[in-house]
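Support case: user asked for a sample of complex input and structure output to validate their parser. Sending the pair below.
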Amino acid sequence: MEITDVAAVEQIRAGSTEIFRVLVERHSRAVFRLAYRMTGNQQDAEDTVQETFLRAYRQLHHFDGRSAFSTWIYRIGANCAIDLLRGRKKREADGVDLLERQPAHEPSPERLTASSQVARMLGPALDELSETERAAFVMRHYEGLCIEEIGRVLGVQPNAAKHSVFRAVQKLRRALEPAMGMAR
Amino acid sequence: MSHLSEEQLVLHYYGEEGDAAAHLEHCAACRKEYQDIVRVLDACRELTVPEPVPAFETLMWQKLAPELRKPRTPWWRRGWMLAPVMAGMLAAAFFVGRISTVKVPVAGETAQAIPAQGRERILLVAMGDHLQRSQMVLVELANAKAGDAPDIHLAQERARDLVSENRLYRQTASLSGANEFSGLLDDLERVLTDVANSPARISSPELQQIQRRIESRGLIFKIRVIDSNLKQKGTEKL
């Protein structure tokens, strides 16, 4: 029978480090998806996943089981991605990263065929959001978290989370609507 | 009749504004605005997420497992840790002091200036030492031959030691607004963490990936430049 997340956590706490593999295998793809949407970059997303599980392992004693393990690891992942975005913005502000940063990755031929002008503009438009706006938007729009949950993940009041989502939508509208006008 | 705000329409799109639906039925202007929002937000769903590399979960586990198996010695028993910790504390004290110092001359300022210089000197020496040791690891890896399962366990052990030191320096530099340092240390930390978490005998593609990261970030060159600047500063402080 498949071991539950809670049982796995208990066994890891009791010293069975190897069981952590179950949690990595079960949740790393979901964290990767979140991280990719937040960072827009495959390498950064992989780094974020690694850092997320490392932090989770070290903070496992904080996991009290009141929320699902998936929610807990998701929270850590979102915060790791925010840390990474903050570091990246700081480096860009210093002009250190501008030439080095690689684009998200080369789009596959299928992706190129399917992508519209709007889709191509979406990555740069998301890059223009602040890290909190981007995190809030990704969690609301792609991951379906409610405003209260987003507030909990970001450590802010629901009202602040709501405004982050709203500001993100405003910026995206400004960036994308001209292209949508052309496409009509 | 008052119209719905853009915020209410956005919340309605996400199903968090229950009262908007009735208004939209009767208000053409709000309906038009709402349709524009829907078009943009629906278009945002075109952001596709690529599939991670094959056997992603296994790869992640391979990177994590060595880190998890490391014995977690209490910090007070790690004698070798004390030097960088002390240096970090001094650095933090120095930077905090620099930020919070009022620029109006006050009595006793001269007396405080000497310990501050001493602290800065210690920081420069400790930081320079850290960068030199990191550079040696990176050079070793950059020059490693990507043969059949190369053994990098020695570089890996040193990388593990350097990661925690590096984190301390990075956080200090970041807090103090020394962005040039914190950017470099951030890049360095990511490579060191990668190395520390790799298996002792890594595959050629994994080694090549590490080598590409070292090269693409120009890490060795940047470390040399900053180390040289630190040495110069340290000499000036003597």
